[in-house]
Amino acid sequence: MTRTPTTARSIADLVDAGALPPDAHADAALAQVARDYAIAVTPEVLDLIEGTPANDPIARQFIPTAQETITTAEERVDPIGDDAHAPVKGIVHRYPDRVLLKPLHACPVYCRFCFRREQVGPGGDVLDDAGLDAAMDYIATHPEIWEVIVTGGDPFMLSPRRIARIVNALDALPHVAVIRFHTRVPIADPRRVNDDLIAALRAARAALYVGVHCNHARELTPDARACLARLADAGIPLLSQSVLLRGVNDSVEALEALFRALVSARVRPYYLHHPDLARGTGHFRLSIDEGQALMRALRGRLSGLCQPTYVLDIPGGYGKSPIGPTYADDAGPDGTRAVVDFRGGQHPYPNK
Ligand SMILES: *Cc1c(COP(=O)(O)O)cnc(C)c1O
Ligand code: SF4
After folding, report:
1. Mean pLDDT to the nearest integer, 293-309
2. Could you tell me the pTM of the whole model?
3. Please, what are the domains in the chain?
4. Which of 78, 161, 194, 264 is the most exposed place for a label (fewest CB within 10 A)?
């Protein structure tokens, strides 16, 4: 695919970039998708595309399809129930010890399966100075907040100056022990992580972590790996979050390659998310049974360093729960539990 110098932000841009066929211009369903949901594909990601959303795991994540116009009865506008836990603008406080801080809703790319697809976009809400102050006030007046997860949108889309302002404000609150950024920038726009951005991430007191959203080994290009190395060399521990997606990474081979690539880039796999019930994303979903079978197949085959926790964000705002598989089966008649090894063998173990 020929490299385009700018981010593709429309059906027309994607046709120009060769990522959609010329007749996509006249496709009413795609026009509808473009009205309903944001589109952005960076030059780096366009370069990675080797096929169509039907057969290429990169195209499938970022190139809009008519399937997005199909919504099912169980899909929701707010799939993980953030709205019910937003005490002030830009804060989601669901768990006692930690909050999300969402300073903006822009992202470098817009993932077609995004769980916040109804909010994210280039015109989406940004916290202005007063809004950021109000969010910081909330954190300052809630001493039970031990960790702040800066997300969005993608917080690495902010200027280094604004990122430094957030880091310094949080670092000044003694009860905030951990600052965690969640971003897709190292994959989608790796050169954005320059010396200024890395300097902005320096907290004097709090521990600062970066979580990277990555779903396929091919996303870890030499540029992306160099970006992750800059962060790791700056002393920042790196975690990953991946979404289990049909047609992207729903095979043992794809997940194995992904987790090995992450660990070899010094990123510790943290969560494998079961896909959320966001509107127009049914073509990405698979069953919990399928997800558990994939996780079971990875156990033993892959180093423990390469094993994320498989989680579901429960619809309605109840938070994330690990959804197995479990390896300690129910009690037998003599009070023992059966522990399952990675080959499926069962071993009794006293339950006391
Ligand atoms: C996902 C999430 C967190 C972070 O959860 P961890 O399990 O600590 O990664 C915190 N708050 C909210 C509202 C979340 O949705
Ligand atoms: S980067 Fe994250 S928030 Fe942004 S579109 Fe992708 S999944 Fe959604």
Report:
1. 96
2. 0.96
3. 11-69 (no CATH), 83-322 (3.20.20.70)
4. 161
